[in-house]
Design brief:
The protein is of the alpha/beta class. It contains 6 helices and 11 strands. The protein has a single domain, classed as Rossmann fold (3-Layer(aba) Sandwich), CATH 3.40.50. It is globular and about 55 Å long. The protein starts with 6 loop residues before the first strand and ends in a 7-residue tail after the last helix.
């Protein structure tokens, strides 16, 4: 595998538009085209690949994203750690618009999305019990605090299908379960990163109270989300840059590749060749 980048960021052009010497890289994948070209730049001495999750003009809705192509494209460039910020709604009163949440769990409420690379013939089960990498989460929390951002160190993100928002009944259901955040893209994106042995961290940028249940506000609408997200754009960009600067020198030490061991469904331990199953195809 040619090492083009070691760190990846899913996000819009705001993350790389102000960087120097950005190189556009087009990637073909076995799963079709990713959302856009990848944009590679050097940040704090590290090679970083940026991919606009919804396309550079934000033309692809959450339920139509080619998640497998996006994640495969990152891994094909040699990426070992992924930063995955996203706009999100709050399900709890204490998680306020403008806050950031560094998620530690997800709940999948999507349907019909292509959500695994392991379609056989070797049946493989990669555990999602702790999908979000603890080392990257600590780096994200520290970067938020460095920038005086109100950050919640844990949180469960409920991932809904989209493009519609929740009904009030659904929002109450999620809130009563004790979950904090709601979003449309974290699944299967984060889990697919884990399947390819990449460490991943999510930072949820809270834009609204979902369905208006926990505040005297109208239910969320797309214009409101965009307005708050744009206010947060400068802050999350700086957090991402600070995170890149704080990344460990050896990203293999994060242990994401190790998570691929003991995942075969036939009772056998994965061999080193099994762990490298995809690298031979890049």
């Amino acid at each position: 595998m040619k090492q083009v980048a070691e760190i990846g960021v899913f996000g819009g052009s705001g993350f790389y538009s102000l960087l120097e010497n950005v190189r556009e890289v087009k990637v073909d994948t076995p799963y079709g085209p990713p959302s856009d070209s990848l944009f590679v730049a050097t940040v704090s001495g590290r090679k970083v690949a940026f991919l606009p999750r919804h396309g550079r003009l934000h033309t692809i809705p959450p339920h139509m994203l080619n998640y497998r192509a996006n994640v495969w494209a990152m891994r094909s460039l040699g990426v070992k750690a992924i930063i995955s910020p996203c706009a999100a709604g709050s399900l709890q009163r204490h998680v306020k618009p403008g806050d950031f949440v560094v998620s530690d769990q997800f709940v999948d409420r999507t349907r019909g999305r292509k959500d695994t690379f392991f379609d056989g013939p070797i049946v493989t089960h990669v555990s999602p019990a702790d999908t979000y990498d603890p080392t990257l989460r600590r780096i994200a929390i520290d970067a938020c605090r460095k920038n005086d951002i109100e950050v919640h160190e844990t949180g469960t993100v409920v991932v809904i299908q989209g493009p519609r928002f929740s009904t009030k009944a659904e929002s109450k259901w999620f809130s009563d379960a004790g979950w904090e955040v709601i979003n449309m893209t974290q699944y299967p994106e984060a889990y697919l990163c884990r399947e390819l042995g990449m460490a991943v961290v999510n930072i949820a940028l809270i834009t609204d109270y979902d369905s208006g249940l926990h505040a005297d506000v109208e239910p969320v609408n797309a214009q409101q989300v965009l307005q708050v997200f744009e206010k947060n754009a400068k802050r999350i960009r700086q957090v991402v840059l600070d995170m890149i600067a704080a990344m460990p020198a050896d990203l293999e030490l994060l242990g994401a590749r190790e998570a691929l061991r003991f995942t075969r469904g036939d009772g056998h331990a994965q061999s080193e060749d099994d762990v490298r199953i995809f690298e031979t195809e890049f």
